[in-house]
Amino acid sequence: MDIEKIIKERFKVFEKIIKVGYNTDKKIIEMKIEDLIQLPNFSRSELTIAIGIRDSLSNRKLVTFLCGINDEKQLKN
After folding, report:
1. Tell me, what's the pLDDT at 72?
2. What whole-number distance in Å separates Cα of residue 33 and Cα of residue 37?
3. Considering only CA atoms, which of 21, 23, 24, 20 is closest in space to residue 40?
């Protein structure tokens, strides 16, 4: 997949979770998948990205995740 498309999708989901009330680091880290499933207009792929956002924020790698970097090999490039 094209890196620009990945970045756009991740930022789109990031904006969606902010708009539904997950607007602080703490709220995102404590975000439960069960709560997201109940929200309208979240596709399965968007839920996967939301989980990635939560996990990357917990690991202090949010910017890296949003930029489309998924593993250590890509960080070195």
Report:
1. 56
2. 6
3. 20
Query: At 67, phi and psi to the nearest 5?
Result: -85, 5
Distance CA(48)–CA(54), nearest Å, equals: 10
Whole-number pLDDT of residue 11? 94
How confident is the model at residue 68, as a pLDDT? 87
Q: Give dist(CA 50, CA 66) in Å, integer.
A: 11
pLDDT tens for each residue of 28-47: 999 998 988 888 888 999 99
DSSP string, 34-75: HHHHTSTT--HHHHHHHHHHHHHHHTT-HHHHHTT--SHHHH
- By C-alpha distance, which of 70, 43, 45 is closest to 55? 70
